[in-house]
Design goal:
It is built from 15 helices and 20 strands. By secondary structure, the protein is of the alpha/beta class. It is globular.
């Protein structure tokens, strides 16, 4: 039973063994060795579940996880060390400290689109933070889940375990954890938050949304098309930060479409057929949903299927009223919208739900500053897509309906710890200003101190 596992982990956590930073580093090293030992099985599992082959597995899954582990092993001692902070005259003499405590028993619920990355990367943060962990991977990628379970088998289940039984998701979401890290859909996140409301469980939610991509009139058209073709159709568009749609300035739209088509063919085709290594849509239900979004009257390129492989598809002449613009696409279909007035488009976007990502291609410094400073989104790029996720010094996370909380690099450590404040007062002297009775002299001092 899940509750028995949680109870066992809570009991182990209270031994305080995970508080030791040396212990945490050792577990990160064990995790890295396990990933190396199961490398070939990881590749085989991805080919079976998603038709994802070695280059993409390393680029978008294993490489990023190993990089995160290496970062934590190198920096954890410094990150976990209590930080001394300045104290005010009101508390003289005293010392202030920030102490980073683990939360306790953590749930990591991961999705199917990047089943290894989005399980292991949060796990690295949870281990680094000194927690015990229950992992609930997706049922939609069973072969990857099985390999994850083998990798985690090196750890005792009272420390880290993978839950793979067909538990009712409501049971998992209603079980009391000390912290939850969830990656998935907005609707499931609502269920999770509702179920955890009585516990007031702290959590990080990594969700999604319709991430816009703007190609302005002064953009490098060919390079923009190249980078968007890669980012949109990576993992067959099943990426939470993929460009959901492209707004292209009317003066460059035709040339952009030509370049986009050129790079799609170059990247993803062998002759006239889409490559056999192109990632497949996760299941028939998702494929049927995507097919309903393809308006044949606006089909510019692609649209054909080979099994669960839907070739890269471009729709041209799309408007915001079209069906494909109502929800996140999450597949290899890219709508192209035309614009002329950037301010008008930004006003429209800023009045929608805040997206997880925002991408802008252009050279004008004032417009770039406007995007950076006056548009609300989780994270993004200027003149590229997706690559902000690869930078260790940039936190990743959503805002509003696209999520809450950040991780990656140092932020992963902070995500899985509570920053505890400690004030250490001296007993050698005691300033009496705070004690009754009040006097005019004391009042004068505190008014000056607080600048009242």
């Amino acid at each position: 039973m899940l509750r028995d596992i949680v109870e066992k982990q809570k009991k182990y956590f209270l031994t305080r063994e995970t508080y030791d930073v040396g212990f945490r580093i050792l577990q990160l090293k064990r995790l890295k060795l396990q990933i190396d030992a199961y490398y070939n099985q990881i590749l085989s599992a991805f080919e079976k579940d998603l038709n994802k082959h070695e280059f993409d597995v390393v680029l978008t899954e294993v490489g990023l996880v190993v990089s995160e582990i290496n970062y934590m092993i190198k920096h954890l001692k410094k990150l976990a060390k209590p930080r001394k902070v300045r104290t005010s005259l009101m508390n003289f003499p005293a010392k202030g400290y920030k102490v980073y405590d683990p939360y306790g028993v953590v749930l990591i619920a991961s999705p199917w689109n990047y089943p290894f990355l989005l399980t292991m990367q949060p796990l690295v943060g949870a281990i680094a933070g000194g927690n015990t962990v229950v992992i609930k991977p997706s049922r939609s990628t069973p072969h990857v889940t099985e390999v994850i379970k083998k990798i985690i088998s090196v750890f005792d289940e009272s420390y880290i375990t993978v839950v793979t039984k067909e538990e009712d998701i409501n049971e998992i979401f209603s079980t009391k954890f000390d912290f939850i890290f969830y990656t998935g859909s907005y609707l499931k996140a609502q269920e999770l938050v509702t179920n955890q409301a009585n516990n007031l469980t702290p959590m990080i939610l990594e969700l999604g949304g319709k991430s816009p991509c703007i190609v302005d009139q002064d953009a490098n058209v060919d390079l923009s098309a190249k980078r968007i073709a890669w980012g949109k159709f990576l993992n067959a568009g099943q990426t939470c930060v993929a460009p959901d749609y492209v707004l292209v300035h009317s003066t460059i739209k035709d040339s952009f479409l030509e370049s986009l088509k050129k790079y799609i063919i170059k990247f993803y085709y062998e002759g006239d057929e889409v490559s056999d290594t192109f990632v497949k849509v996760i299941n028939k239900t998702s494929l049927e949903r995507l097919q309903t979004l393809i308006d044949p009257n606006k089909l510019y390129f692609g649209g054909k299927c080979k099994g669960l492989i839907l070739e890269p598809t471009i729709l041209n002449g799309v408007t915001r009223e079209d069906l494909i613009m109502q929800d996140e696409i999450f597949g290899p279909v890219l709508p192209i919208l035309e614009f002329e007035d950037l301010d008008k488009e930004l006003h429209t976007i800023n009045n929608l739900d805040h997206p997880l990502a925002f991408y802008y291609f252009g050279e004008d410094k004032e417009r770039i500053e406007k995007i950076k400073n006056f548009s609300e989104f989780g994270g993004g790029c200027i003149n590229d897509v997706i690559m902000h996720l690869t930078e260790k010094n940039l936190p990743f996370g959503g805002v509003g309906k696209s999520g809450m909380g950040n991780y990656h690099g140092a932020e992963s450590f902070y995500a899985f710890t509570h920053c505890k404040s400690v004030l250490k007062k001296s007993t050698k002297m005691d300033i009496g200003i705070k004690y009754p009775p009040s006097t005019k002299r004391k009042l004068k001092f505190i008014k000056r101190f607080f600048k009242v």
